[in-house]
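User: Batch of two.

Assistant: Item 1 of 2:
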Amino acid sequence: MKNFISKVTLRETIRFAIVFLIILAAAKFGQYLFFDWKTSPAILWPPTGIALAIIWLGGYRYAIPIFLGLLTASFTGPTAVYFPGVVTTPIGQVLGKIAGVYLLRKLKFTGNFSTLKNVLLFLFVISLSSTIAPSVTTLISAMTGRLSVSAYISWSRSWAGYAFSCLMIFPLIISWAKSDSYIGT
């Protein structure tokens, strides 16, 4: 543990803080869309695509500030009284993004969409990794009697929001990051 702490630099701490704030802001925006606009979660859950891109670009260590940002948003959101969901939803979201990046790397996704192979790999991995968080959330909601719709509707809406977020936001961030050489330095 001491060795890990000694390796954390001021620059890395600032990056972690920035990632935390970005994820928190994206989650609060997602909550605003869902609760204030009364939309379906399937419309978009911005932290998912952002988190996938951050872990892809920065590594698995960024799962920590991503989790903390999602957890903070959950604890300060409208459903904060629902403790099991507040804790398990961020865990499922982070596990889904870690699994997504792991699979993308394992299947040799290159980070661009210039070939059909890369596009199909990306679509496959996003479809698969976006099942983790809805599965955790729907299971916990069903076990605690908090489902307001059928389990299938709850799960599929969440899955669509996570997948759509990854499909829209990840390519934008990755394309932007490739155009700016200062990312990751």
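Item 2 of 2:
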Amino acid sequence: MPDMIWTETLELGVALMDDTHREFVELYNALARASEDSRLSALDRFIEHTVEHFEQENRWMEKVGFPGCH
């Protein structure tokens, strides 16, 4: 898996969302680089973050009436 590169073009200008998206990229890259011995724990961290990430964004979108949550 190739690394994902975080750039300013990915920023939304909403600090909490940008921080969460940066963390997503970091965890994805950690998973991409994980050795066979550490891959399962890296995958667990990535899944845990992703579930919380989408649940949080759904809560934000519902709060402001944004159509079509994740």
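The first helix runs from residue 15 to 33.
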